[in-house]
Design goal:
25 strands, disordered N terminus, 6-stranded antiparallel barrel, Elongation Factor Tu (Ef-tu), domain 3
């Protein structure tokens, strides 16, 4: 009904358009008018609900919309494997289990573990023997009855035995075996099984281990991911890189989930352009919404607002624009009234600069036309009025 009333106003106020420039045509030809303005009274503008505003010079925040996916942080994901060869005896967890750092995931028996403990006992016995021999050779040298060469050879053997014992003890410590139980070779406690533990807090995402499975140091037994801290990998094309800075705030929304938006921050920007996508990966750290099951691999859309803190531009609301094909126009007036008491409103071609969801920078190709008021609302009404005055089709 409002559109019908506008058309009624057009018909009623059509005479309000000023005399237009006319092209001279041949006799009998249809007269073509070239009207790029309309002249209306204040009452007519009020009836059409056309409002004018003064363009503002201000910073324009440009919003970038980037697609990406959720990924886990390097220190929040772990691949679990054994540090020694063995056979899986028991599994205490399943995929999806919440585990804590140091919690046993499974146990494994190992012949290699038994042999390693035997090597430690042998190295310790050799070191004990060489320490006694070293002290004996040292006493002989002090009493000038021993050969220096024998003393040096014993010292070298003792140092080698000490190094070998320490190296084997370090291997046992990696397997979380306390070497204190092996200090006495005659009463040693040989361990045949070890526990495979989780190195981090998190959820078990993969569990390829099975009972009786033979495993070595290269075998993946489980994968654990901590989702308390995540990051998003979003693709940015090189033409947009100048708008992104490390530390910049980012809003993330989950494309296929009804989770609320979360705030993140640009952690770092990759220094390599992908040959497949021709884009640079930007890594955004964020904390998932409380209670939301956010997992690596989920699709996200990142919204980044970027602005130059030093640059200002002449801006108007997006509602002020009239678009024809790829060209943009605004209706503006200096509010000067003619002899007939009507305000001339001219249509100006403009070029758009930076823009966001509500505002855009406008540039007048022919230079700044001076102080103007720009139509903010119902610019389509003015365009229809201008077309009717020009004799153009409004369809």
């Amino acid at each position: 009904m409002k559109n019908i009333s506008y058309l009624s106003v057009f018909a009623f106020f059509l005479f309000g358009c000023s005399s237009s420039e006319e092209k001279t045509t041949e006799p009998g030809a249809v007269e073509v008018k070239n009207v790029d303005f309309v002249e209306l009274t204040d009452a007519q503008l009020n009836a059409m609900e056309v409002k004018f505003i003064k363009p503002e010079r201000r910073q324009v925040a440009t919003s970038l919309y980037l697609n990406g996916k959720v990924s886990s942080l390097p220190n929040y994901q772990a691949t679990v494997s054994a540090n020694i060869q063995g056979k899986i005896e028991r599994i205490m967890v399943h995929e999806g289990s919440l585990v804590r750092r140091g919690q046993t995931l499974m146990t494994m028996s190992s012949m290699a573990l038994v042999e390693l403990q035997n090597e430690f006992l042998a190295a310790k016995s050799e070191r004990d023997f060489l320490e006694v021999e070293f002290k004996r050779q040292e006493e002989l040298i002090k009493n000038n009855v021993g050969a220096l060469a024998d003393f040096q050879l014993t010292e070298a053997k003792l140092n080698a035995a000490l190094s070998r014992e320490k190296a084997i003890q370090a291997k046992l410590e990696l397997l979380r075996i306390d070497a204190a139980g092996l200090k006495n070779p005659r009463n040693s406690q040989i361990i045949t099984q070890i526990s495979i533990i989780s190195p981090i807090d998190g959820y078990v995402t993969r569990l390829p281990a099975t009972i009786g499975m033979l495993a070595n140091i290269e075998t993946t037994l489980a994968e654990v991911v901590n989702v308390s801290e995540l990051h998003a990998e979003v693709a940015v094309f090189d033409k947009e890189l100048d708008l992104i800075r490390e530390g910049q705030p980012v809003e993330l929304e989950f494309t296929n989930r009804a989770f609320p938006r979360v705030q993140g921050r640009v952690a770092h920007i990759s220094r390599e352009i992908s040959q497949d996508t021709k884009a640079v990966m930007v890594h955004v750290n964020f904390t998932p919404p409380p209670g939301a099951l956010v997992m690596p691999g989920m699709a996200v859309r990142a919204v980044l607002a970027s602005q130059d803190n030093d640059a200002t531009a002449q801006t108007v609301p997006l509602s002020s624009l009239v678009q024809e094909d790829d060209q943009f126009y605004v209706f503006a007036t200096d509010q000067t009234k003619g002899p007939n008491g009507r305000i001339r409103i001219r249509k100006y071609k403009v070029t758009l600069g930076d823009r966001n969801e509500t505002t855009t920078e406008v540039i007048f190709p022919n230079g700044d036309p001076g102080p103007l008021l720009v139509a903010q609302t119902n610019v389509s009404v003015l365009e229809t009025q201008r077309r009717q005055a020009s004799g153009q089709s409004t369809e």
